[in-house]
């Protein structure tokens, strides 16, 4: 493929299946295969829209345990891509993961089989098709709580959820990839959704799933998330430009010797030491 010619890539993104549900914010959640809204005792929609490659056995079993403790709940997951997925032939053990081309239907069947073996009906896993960005953002309003993956957190996926007012529950791991969601939650002022271990994760998910009042409170706090610095691209660009200029000035002042440079950045203060 000629990389200088973008038309093949554009055509690829134009190939949208005619059976996709494109939600502009006006469709009922039943249009997405989710349970209907009842007047009381409503279903809880736990979700995770990460790619399947971020799943591990511990995370998936944790989600199934939450489903068992919240009987009127479903797990809404992003439908695996047919191009590049994880094949879990026998179990969800990380040793059995193979990153290779695999049929999307088989991946879903493997996960549903694990759910059934754990005592959770496969029908309680609802698969969300891949849709254009705006339609994807719009359907977040149908979910109750985003359950983060453990080892490799949601990154832009968590940002999308918080931007749309959907609370995200996370348990930070040691690597950088496992701490991103926690940083995002602190940035939007909802640090209480950051837990320290999987037991606390499960208990809080169950508590929130059983308390619509708490979920509504969290959603109200995220109503103005779009106006927070985290989502202010213009200010981010200005800060980034200023930072690069400071680094450039430091390098010039230190005559190119990076070993004597020390840049300290704080919200209201930037200073240069040498």
Relevant terms:
alpha/beta, Rossmann fold, 2 domains, disordered N terminus
Would you write up a description of this structure?
This protein is of the alpha/beta class and 274 residues long. It has two domains: 18-228, Rossmann fold, CATH 3.40.50; 232-273. Helices cover 37% and strands 12% of the residues. The protein has helices at residues 7-14, 57-69, 104-117, 133-139, 156-163, 180-187, 198-209, 212-221, 233-253, and strands at residues 44-48, 73-78, 85-86, 99-100, 125-128, 145-147, 168-169, 262-266, 269-273. A five-stranded parallel beta sheet has the order 5-2-1-6-7. Strands 3-4 form a two-stranded antiparallel ribbon. The protein has a two-stranded antiparallel ribbon with strand order 8-9. α2 packs parallel to α7. The longest helix has 21 residues, at 233-253.
CATH architecture of the largest domain: 3-Layer(aba) Sandwich
Number of helices: 9
The general outline is elongated
Largest sheet: 5 strands, parallel
Order of helices and strands: HEHEEEHEHEHEHHHHEE
Quickly count the domains: 2
Estimate the strand proportion: 5-15%
Strands side by side in the biggest sheet = 5-2-1-6-7
* CATH secondary-structure class of the largest domain: Alpha Beta
Sequence-ordered SSE layout with sheet pairings:
Blueprint: H1 7-14, E1 44-48, H2 57-69, E2 73-78, E3 85-86, E4 99-100, H3 104-117, E5 125-128, H4 133-139, E6 145-147, H5 156-163, E7 168-169, H6 180-187, H7 198-209, H8 212-221, H9 233-253, E8 262-266, E9 269-273
Parallel strand pairs: 1-2, 1-6, 2-5, 6-7
Antiparallel strand pairs: 3-4, 8-9
């Amino acid at each position: 493929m000629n990389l200088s010619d973008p038309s093949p890539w554009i055509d690829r993104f134009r190939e949208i299946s005619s059976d996709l549900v494109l939600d502009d914010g006006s469709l009922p959640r039943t249009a997405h295969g989710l349970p209907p809204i009842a007047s009381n005792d409503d279903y809880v929609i736990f979700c995770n829209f990460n790619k399947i490659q971020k799943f591990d056995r511990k995370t998936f079993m944790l989600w199934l345990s939450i489903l068992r403790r919240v009987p009127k709940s479903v797990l809404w997951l992003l439908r695996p891509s047919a191009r590049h997925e994880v094949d879990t032939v026998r179990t969800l053990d990380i040793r059995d993961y193979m990153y290779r081309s695999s049929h999307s239907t088989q991946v879903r069947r493997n996960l549903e089989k694990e759910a059934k073996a754990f005592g959770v009906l496969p029908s309680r896993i609802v698969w969300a098709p891949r849709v254009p960005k705006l339609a994807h953002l719009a359907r977040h309003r149908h979910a109750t709580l985003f359950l983060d993956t453990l080892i490799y957190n949601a990154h832009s996926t968590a940002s999308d959820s918080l931007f749309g007012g959907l609370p995200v529950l996370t348990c930070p791991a040691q690597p950088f990839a496992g701490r991103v969601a926690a940083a995002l939650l602190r940035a939007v002022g909802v640090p209480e959704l950051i837990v320290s271990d999987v037991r606390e994760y499960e208990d809080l998910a169950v508590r929130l799933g059983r308390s619509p009042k708490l979920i509504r409170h969290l959603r109200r706090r995220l109503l103005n998330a779009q106006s927070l610095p985290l989502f202010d691209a213009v200010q981010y660009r200005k800060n980034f430009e200023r930072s690069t200029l400071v680094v450039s000035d430091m390098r010039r002042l230190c005559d190119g010797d990076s070993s004597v440079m020390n840049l300290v950045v704080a919200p209201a203060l930037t200073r240069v030491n040498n």
